[in-house]
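User: Structure tokens for this complex, please. No commentary.
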Amino acid sequence: MILEPKLVSKIFDLSIFKDIAKVFITLFFTSYILYTLFSIVPGQKSFFTNYEFDGWDDEYLQPIQYNIIFDQPVIFKNYLDWLKNAFSGNFGNISHDDYEPLAPYMFDSIMNSFRLVFLGIAISFVLSLFFIFLYQYPFIYKNIIEPLISMSMLHLLFIAFFLFEVGVRSGLPYNVAVAISISFGGGVFYDYFIMLRDMYEKVSKKDYITFAVNSGFKKYKHILAEFLINLITITFSRIPILFSGLIMLEVYKPELEGVGYLIWRSIQTSGDVPPSFHAVYSVTIILILFFSVLFLLTEHIRQSLSPKEYK
Amino acid sequence: MKILKYIAYYTKIYLFSSESFIIRYLFSMPTFIVTVFLLLFILLNNPFSSYSSSDTVRHMKPVQNITQSDVNNTNKVFYDKKTDRDVFISSIEANSYSIKRIDGWKIKGSPLRKKEQLLEIEPHPLPPMVRTNDPTSENNNSLLILGTLKNKKDFLSVIIKGSTRSFMLSIYTLISFMITGLTLGILLGYYDRRLFKWKFFSFRTIVGSIQKLFESTPLILWVFLAVIFIEFNFKYLSETGRQNLSFIMFGIFSSPALSKMISSKMMELKAEEFVTALKLQGIPDYKIIFKHIIKYYCISILLLQSCYIVAQALFLDITLNVLKFGFLTGLGAKVFPIFSGLTGNFFHLIVVIVVEYSFIYTFYNIGRFIENRWVIKNG
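Assistant:
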């Protein structure tokens, strides 16, 4: 069976903790480098002083602004301060002219984006099932399905925007247009379609499945195992790409209240108010952490469920 | 003679074989539909009519110069989006209308129809193909196949100029993508055992972790960060230089996928007998890598990935314009205003969609062609 207790323990064996430790170590160094890079952006005083405008001495600022040096002790000290605050849920204010705390707004935005991502995934899956049904008609496949799939194949972010515009202008409801455009633009539709087609054409003819059928086991049980592996791998590996497509739509349509808009508004300058890079940095680090752990889990689940390992 | 034979052979493969992407592309339904649409538009537009350019001039009239007779003579009334933004906004504010949000010059949810002040005249649904009698134009009496934009620029030349710049940017991306991907792929795949290793840390684990980090995070986020960093820190560079640098960074961020494929292929082939035989014959490593492994076994991966990255880079320009990074010279800078209704009308939108879709469908067919021809052949 797919979900045997032995298998579950196999997924969460010690190696996963080793890999998570690796992720955290890499993230620590990467985030430090990013912090330093953001810190040396001219005019970005606020980043050093825990989100206050003044309080940075020129004697510290000047050498850092004009020399890209990673061993500035003050940057490292500030980075550790940022980490300490981040662990206690304090990411500073939303921006320099909006003094609301960033953390709840950021997590709300991330959740809004994920809702749309999962909606896109669900719609892609349903659409690909429908297209698999039409796949048996060569004329429809060549002239309708293939051109539509071509848009999804390249995982082009622009497609999301392009389809959204066309969808809305041709009278599609707003939410449906968003979901369809991100499912096509993120490439997940193409991947699901190819996966289902392979299930239909190749997996059912594999040697081990023929052997299992001849030995008296049910065919679909084994196909389902492979289907689940592919489904999990594709779904989780495509989430970052869907997310990318969504960022663009969120900037274009701020009413979606997603994380894309939060990043975009944080890099804008209005009057004397500088861009809020601390918000961009915080969102980036949270997303990198989330996606790295997700990627790792997917790899472990895939390895544990794969028929070779299982045997 | 030999060259002619080669030309004939490759022409047969690329043009007339059943797998040829050109044949697939030309004889598919979307191409047919697109062609019919274009023909219809051209016929409807009637290039030989005496469609006066004075309409175009009136079309571009600033808000404050529009008279009552203009209002009476037009069928369609809009607000003026392009000519004078300040007059437009102040006219709304003076009449105490509420402005909810100005986004790309569109105003949503505000009762803004006041004919005398907010007006744009569209006497014909399509732009003129032949512009005549326009003394102010440099291209007077010239044939403008795709008509003009609202700012009187020839649409076809705008598209071609933008595409050329975007194509150059995608070449920069391709170069950085290839260099980074191939270098890391060869180092991790072929020279793996000779590289630095200390207890738990090795070159492979360090680079692997960084690659995983890049791969698992949305690519656009890295591009975002790179663009922000370049825009703020490289102010001494020209706009073109900063654009080039951003696209070079994009190539580097996309390279983990290529390096992973190359390294796994190298590791797989390293154990093969022919590589051992070549080594025993004293052939240097670089020759084994480039003349034997890459030339015969990795070329399909390289071609396929190149296709994808060029397509991605072409559209990244548009993506960055949607995100309002203000890249001014690429195709995106021309296309996005048309989408948001700033410089073009529905006809321009259709043309842009056709151009973009043709790009996508061509790349899709090239990708499939390479997959079928080389990947299957070389396993």
